[in-house]
Amino acid sequence: MTKIYYFSGTGNTLAAAKRLGTLLDGEIYNIGALMCGQTENAVITAERVVILFPAYAYGAPNLVKRFASTFRIVSPYIAAFVTYGTEPGGALAEIYLTLKKHGAALAFAGGIPSVENYIPIFGTPSKEVQQKRLALQNAGVEAAAQAVSKGQRNRLWLFRPFSGFVSALFQMGKKHFVKGYKVHSQCTGCGLCAEICPAAAITIQSGMPEFSSRCEHCQACLNWCPAKAIGYIRLKPDTPRYRHPDVSVNEMLRKRQSLDGVCAKN
Q1: Could you name the CATH architecture of 2-161?
Q2: Sheet holding 78-84: strands in order across?
Q3: pTM for this entry
Q4: Which CATH architecture has domain 176-252?
Q5: pLDDT (tens digit, 9 = 90+) per residue, 96-122?
Q6: Please, are residues 178 and 213 in contact by the beta-carbon 8 Å criterion?
């Protein structure tokens, strides 16, 4: 049995997880949903475990690192793949070290090129660029499936001082970055942003979304808002957004899997 755990904001990594699950006849799990559940003494057991996540500022999302440190993963084969738009940086190294610290060994690590989705900085990718990157992602998922199915192992270069520096700066600044989100007048208070946020960082107060320090800056709220009412710093409401074309909004919803529905604290 192969169990695949993913973190996804705009659907890039979920699309990869879905395809990988089909190729490996595996089960996929939303890390955001699992971290909203009861995680005390949580254990994951499987013949093969795959962790899929995007790179943010050359590092791994906090929620993914918390997942890797909260759940005890018992498996003879653990693989991790990072989806990235520009460069993966040291994201895989961060997961490798987190797993090692908690007694789990990463057997294989690889990257899957995807569409760049941080539109407040990089802008909305053109249709041509999207098509090229989606083709690269499909090829990357195929290669990942082959590596896992064959039980391949590799060594990961851990010395990444520049990536580590950028990632550390990003993590230190996140509590301030969250202040850059803006809710424009066309907001209908539908609450989709709160339900889709993989980090459970949004609550609806008086019919309007409020953002907390849980925010991973995955851009899920910004890109999935049906009214394009959520902006970031200078991003205008009429700016085109990006979502992976093979992922639906219902697939992105964070379904709480705990009895009490309370997310794990940071």
Answers
A1: 3-Layer(aba) Sandwich (3.40)
A2: 27-30, 2-6, 48-54, 78-84, 108-113
A3: 0.92
A4: 2-Layer Sandwich (3.30)
A5: 999 999 999 999 999 999 999 988 888
A6: yes
Tell which residue, 53, 107, 50, has the closest CA to residue 84: 53
Smallest CA-to-CA distance from 262 within 35, 36, 31, 71 is with 36
Which residue in this structure is represented by tokens 């600044």? 173
Same fold across 2-161 and 176-252: no
Written as six digits, the tokens of 147 are: 């590596």
Q: Where do the structural domains in the chain lie, given as residue ranges? A: 2-161, 176-252
Question: How far is residue 227's CA from residue 186's CA, in Å, rounded to a whole number?
Answer: 6
The pLDDT confidence band at residue 255, using thresholds 50, 70 and 90, is low
User: Does 119 or 143 have the greater pLDDT score?
Assistant: 143
Contacts of 177 (CB under 8 A, 6+ apart): 215, 217
Question: Rounded distance, CA 215 to CA 35, Å?
Answer: 14
d(CA 67, CA 33): 11
**Residues 9, 218: contact at Cβ < 8 Å?**
yes
The count of residues in the chain is: 266
Contacts of 169 (CB under 8 A, 6+ apart): 57
In angstroms, the Cα distances linking 211 to 107, 163, 188, 235, 254 are 37, 27, 16, 17, 16
